[in-house]
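Page 42, continued from yesterday. The earlier attempt failed because a stray header line got pasted into the input along with the sequence. Redoing it now with the clean sequence only.
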Amino acid sequence: MSRVSVEYKNHIAHVTLTRGDKMNALDDAMIKAIISAGQEVAASDARAVVLSGEGKSFCAGLDMASFASMAQTDPTEWLMTRSHNDANEVQEVALVWQRVPVPVICAIQGVAYGGGLQLALGADIRIAHPEVKLAVMEMKWGLIPDMGGMVLLPKLVRSDVLRLLTYTARPIGAAQAADWGLVTKLSDDPLTEALALAEDIAGQSPSAIRAAKRLIEIAEANPRAEVLLEESSEQAELIGKPDQMEVIAANLQGRKPEFN
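This time it went through. Structure tokens are written below.
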């Protein structure tokens, strides 16, 4: 049974979790399919990505059968193996979307719990339905976030919020999530809004968009001097090049740019 579908239209990659009957819960097959989808999209010429889940919920986190199988194995080997650059396999479920070189927009409905929340946090932008529930759910099962959450969460929320969410596992509503920075904005139709935003991004200079994503990641994690140098380096590769010249021509002629 397919766990994830990937479709391309108008330079946008549509990545959909297709286990809707199970609230898109994460089992081993789903984990591998999500990573594979991220790798495929990263290697494509897509200019933006929309990540969503079919059915009532985006992703309810790890499924119960996976909890049971975890209890019967020695976790040290698979947790400590760096199989995907600096990450293990389960961490790559979220982090692969940060490695995708173009913006990733996540549309969230229903719930995003545990691993499902961490998956959503791997996107650049999150658009959520007003009735969404989000939770750092791992403490409910006597665990801690281990799918990249501790790389992603501190960039988005204050330390006290991070601690409250992690210590209690309490679900929070969409408005609170937006106020705390877990979601970017609310929409009654998050998928439609995500697609519209992706279309807007896909209409920008492809080389500038990719440069912007690289630069933002460096800016969030590096010292001032390195960020300033990287600004200059990235800009030097854009000025006067075909994509930028097409943007200028399109602006002067009052039309939409067309990129190769």
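Notes: The chain is about 50% helix and 15% strand.
Reminder to self: strip header lines before submitting.
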